[in-house]
Amino acid sequence: MDKGQLIEELSGSWDETKAARDSLVGLGAAVVAPVLDVLCDEESPVGWNVPADVLCRIGEPALLPLAEASASASADSPEVARRVLWALARLDVPHPGVYVPLLTHPHPRVRDNALSVLRGEGEASMRFVDRLLPLLGDPEPEVRKRAVAVFDAIGTGAVPELRRLRRQPATGPRIRSGALEALAAIDGPAALDDKDRAAWRRLTRIKRPAETPEGMHLCGSWYAVPSTDQAAVLDAFDLGGPEPVTLRTGAAAWNHDRHAWHRRRVHYKCARVFVSPVLDGWTLVFGDSSENTHRVESADDAEAEKVLASVVRRRCADLSRRFGAAQWYGMSCGDGWTAWCIAEGGDVVRHYDAFDAAEGGRAEDSHGEGPAHPAESGYLLPHQRALPDDAFDGVDLSDPEAFFARYRQVKERLGIPETCHANDIAARMSVDPGALGAHTRVEGAGVLALTVCGREHGHPAGALPC
Questions:
Q1: Could you give the C-alpha distances from 404 to 295, 401, 410, 416, in angstroms and in order?
Q2: Distances (CA, A) of 325 to 12, 52, 226, 343, 353
Q3: Which pLDDT score is estimated for 215?
Q4: Which residues pair with residue 273 across a beta bridge?
Q5: Dihedral class, residue 440 (left if φ above 0, else alpha if ψ from -120 to 50, else beta)
Q6: Do residues 183 and 221 both lie within one domain?
């Protein structure tokens, strides 16, 4: 049977096409072009996984044709690009070194995909380090980002080469900057030498006085205390090793540590916190302490929320005894969770958690510890339902515009107030970190400070902006 007939037989089910797929794989390089045409044809009745399987099993002879398809005008279709890149990353090849020539391909999509494959090899990609180093200075930001990820996967074995690159002015500022980012990704500040650490601190000193505050992405938890005494705040949270940073750096560290995953290190989520400069008279402390993290992690799912709540309430009470008042706020960018705790003079006067309240709460009416706080006045609490059951009758709920139009209409007609979240309560009680701006009064310098875990294990790995 010739290759044309075999390709026609690819239009059956997965099981029905097995014989044709096997025969095409046996023909090897001779059928790469026509099978690739089927893969790239969005109108073809053949499921895209069928030709992709054939190309992946043919292996190395399909490498360059797939790379060219990825770079060609046909890949302007997101669907075609997805199919081609899927196959390109999964070729049955004898060793990953066959992807190395693609690192110099003129199209960034191809370079990026080759880097993705080499990243999956982890430490084994160290043998390609000389070919990888130039990608740290690639003109395309996404390619540079991927190159940093490859060096992170390689690990500490790449540190000497990266440090050598940092000391070679002829390589240019972009590639030296990429090497610095890769060093930070591998092992955080511990991977930097004294000269790089001094340069970072010098840049921070230059940028910090002229920095205009910007609203922070709110995902995680933070405390607020009415104090200008940073040393007292550090002592209250048992923090050490404070390193002055810009607001931008501190915010990035908080978000990085909240969302990061690290395969080589533990305690990366509880090693440090960001203690803000004084913002409109308040000091904010972002992040999780060792106690928060490990007591919650050691509890089962049913108990974790109760453990966190008890830690938060006790700490807020202790902080308010020392500073007169204290608040804790929590928000999630992923699932709508929001919570707050307010303490005054050593006592918790209000603790609210939207998820706990939705399940029944701990008090009769306020759904939390303590009565509703005046800061909540005029708002609906997140768990409260105010729309009537028939509010969306006749509305296509799959149409966002129609849904929100009806939502606004019903709210206005019935006079339903806005729903509050932790940042709204923070705005009334202390400072909303999501609304920082030129209007915010800033005193002193913020710091990244180490928790008990951080003093033992060091800063988390990862590059941070200055």
A1: 41, 5, 10, 14
A2: 70, 62, 7, 6, 20
A3: 95
A4: 449
A5: beta
A6: no
Q: Cα-flanking dihedrals φ and ψ of residue 275, to 5°?
A: -100, 115
Q: Tell me how far apart the alpha carbons of residues 421 and 225 are, in angstroms, rounded to a whole number.
A: 19
- Same structural domain, 328 and 358: yes
**pTM score:** 0.72
Q: Is residue 353 part of a domain?
A: yes
CA angle 253, 126, 256 (to 5 degrees): 10
| End-to-end Cα distance, the chain | 64
- On whether both 152 and 290 belong to a single domain, the answer is no
- Residue where a domain stops, chosen among 203, 222, 244: 203
Specify if 464 maps to a domain.
no
Mean pLDDT of the chain, nearest integer: 85
pLDDT in tens, 365-388: 445 677 889 999 988 888 877 777
Looking at residue 457, what is its pLDDT?
80
Q: Are residues 127 and 255 in the same domain?
A: no
Spatial distance between the Cα atoms of 276 and 274, rounded to a whole number of angstroms: 6
Could you tell me if residue 466 is inside a domain? no
Instruction: Please say which residue of 203, 225, 241 terminates a domain.
Output: 203
Looking at the structure of the chain, the number of domains it has is: 2
Whether the pLDDT of residue 219 is over 60: the answer is yes
Q: Which amino acid is residue 411, in one-letter code?
A: K
Q: Would you state the structure tokens that stand for residue 465, as one six-digit string?
A: 């902006």
User: CB within 8 A of 427, min separation 6: which ones?
Assistant: 435
Q: Which of 311, 312, 328, 320 is nearest to 224 (CA)?
A: 328
Q: pLDDT for 389-410, tens place per residue?
A: 777 777 787 888 877 787 777 7
Specify the CATH number for the domain of residue 168. 1.25.10
Structural domain boundaries enclosing 125: 3-203
Do 86 and 234 sit in the same domain of this protein? no
Residue 394 lies in a domain: no
Q: What residue has token string 């913020």?
A: 446
